[in-house]
Design goal:
Pathway: Amino-acid degradation. GO terms for molecular function: imidazolonepropionase activity; metal ion binding. Keywords: Histidine metabolism, Hydrolase, Iron, Metal-binding, Zinc. One of its GO terms (biological process) is L-histidine catabolic process to glutamate and formamide. It is an enzyme of class 3 (hydrolase). The protein is of the alpha/beta class. The chain has two domains: about 110 residues, Urease, subunit C, domain 1, CATH 2.30.40; about 290 residues, Alpha-Beta Barrel (TIM Barrel), CATH 3.20.20.140. Helix content is about 40%, strand content about 20%. The protein contains 16 helices and 16 strands. Strands 1, 2, 3, 4, 5, 14, 15 and 16 form an eight-stranded mixed sheet that branches. Helix 8 links the parallel strand 9 and strand 10. The longest helix has 18 residues. Bound molecules: N-(iminomethyl)-L-glutamic acid and fe (iii) ion. Fe (iii) ion (FE) binds next to loops.
Length: about 400
């Protein structure tokens, strides 16, 4: 069905902006008193509401009341929201001064979430995940990447990925699953890191292919997880099997970003430890730099150098990293808004990082702007000026969210 939606005080289309590098607010296309024509879940036209109404008198009108600013739906290109249990204990230790790595060594950390997630059955996990997906959708996040990585054996990694698939069949949000079996060398695996990754390549990834559970593979490259030498053959082998690659890179120490670029990863995520040297490597690559302010806030660490990355010409996306350990809050807009004040990002750069640039990190070209032909994934904020949204640092939420043209 074809319909005209509006009127909106402003439509921010995010049209015509570069995929890479800095963007100024005066480059934003803003349509005042705007309307959108939607058909078959796609945007057919945007423009002045009254003009669209006059020139398309046959169209049904979906009226929007009050002041509203319309944006593309957000894309959260990095989450770990398929988990059971809590790590509140870790957080209380951390704010007393213990580090992430100290807590991991003393029985907390990722391995604790692995125990709690292994103990939940698939139905329980599906239920917990569905609630978190719905919360994100209500916040205007219409596409969500979700990683496994709290199973860390074939059975439990498959359980997680099957839970993600189950939710994707019932939720209106689009879910993009990623296999993160290389999150940590599991404590109960008898053998080296290389032997574990070979085991994943031989036993887990083929089943993921057969059941069509994920088309992306992630690895955590860090002193506490997998090193560069072990990671490269794993990533190359996964790529040869047809998986896209993404990397948890440079969170505490550098080397991950370099591996990501060398292996042709679609994205390198975290980058809190990256410097101008790493940023320069991104300049001529297709790898998206994904920064995760929620992890900086959760760990009390510095932000990734988003300004330096943009000025070096990177394609910068911002994601929530929502997970039970380092980033328990999961409020993507709040995190992006707060980081932008410290990192000095323009509103245009923040919205690009939450929409079409984040879509690029997931190799999705059909969303992230309100151009004609794009998915009608949209959200409207109750204000009359797009600048109000970051100004309120996440406390204004979208009052209306559309997925493929249908109101949630
Ligand atoms: O992206 N850094 C590694 N993995 C997650 C944290 C997972 C956890 O602490 O449970 C992250 O921050
Ligand atoms: Fe992560």
């Amino acid at each position: 069905m074809k319909k005209l939606i509006g009127p909106f005080s402003e439509i921010l289309t995010l049209s015509g902006l570069a995929l890479n590098g800095a963007i100024e607010d005066n480059q934003l296309q803003i349509i005042p008193n705007g309307g959108v024509i939607v058909e078959h879940g796609l945007i057919q036209a945007t423009g002045d509401f009254e003009t669209l109404r006059r020139t398309n008198p046959e169209l049904e009108i979906e009226e929007v009341k009050g002041e509203q600013v319309l944006l593309p739906g957000f894309v959260d290109c990095h989450t770990h929201i398929c988990f059971a249990g809590s790590r509140a204990k870790d957080y209380s230790l951390r704010i007393q001064g213990k580090t992430y790595l100290e807590i991991a060594k003393s029985g907390g950390g990722i391995w604790d979430s692995v125990q709690q997630t292994r103990a939940a059955d698939q139905a329980k996990l599906t239920d917990l995940l569905a609630q978190r997906v719905q919360r994100h959708l209500n916040d205007g996040i219409t596409t969500i990447e979700i990683k496994s990585g709290y199973g860390l054996d074939t059975e439990n990694e498959l359980k997680m990925l099957r839970a993600i698939k189950a939710v994707s069949l019932t939720s209106k949000a689009d879910l993009v699953p990623t296999c993160l079996a290389a999150h940590l060398l599991p404590k109960d695996f008898e053998g080296t890191a290389t032997a574990y990754l070979d085991h994943v390549l031989q036993n887990l990834l083929p089943v993921i292919k057969t059941e069509n559970l994920a088309s992306r593979v992630d690895i955590f490259i860090e002193e506490s997880a997998f090193d560069r030498a072990t990671s490269i053959p794993y990533l190359k082998a996964a790529k040869a099997m047809g998986f896209e690659i993404t990397v948890h890179a440079d969170q505490f120490t550098t080397s991950g970003l370099e591996v990501a670029i060398e292996t042709g990863a679609v994205s390198a995520d975290h980058l809190e430890a990256s410097t101008a040297r790493e940023a320069a490597l991104l300049k001529d690559s297709d790898t998206v730099a994904v920064v995760l302010p929620g992890a900086s806030l959760g760990l009390g660490m510095q932000y990734a150098p988003a300004r330096i990355l943009l000025d070096a010409g990177a394609c910068l996306a911002i994601a929530s990293d929502w997970n039970p350990g380092s980033a328990p809050m999961g409020d993507l807009l709040m995190q992006a808004a707060v980081m932008s004040a410290s990192e000095k990002l323009s509103t245009a750069e923040v919205f690009a990082a939450l929409t079409f640039r984040a879509a690029k990190a997931l190799s999705l070209e059909d969303r992230g702007t309100l151009d004609n032909g794009m998915l009608a994934d949209m959200q409207a904020y109750p204000c009359n000026d797009y600048r109000e949204i970051l100004y309120h640092q996440g406390k204004i939420k979208p009052g209306i969210v559309w997925k493929k043209g249908t109101r949630i």
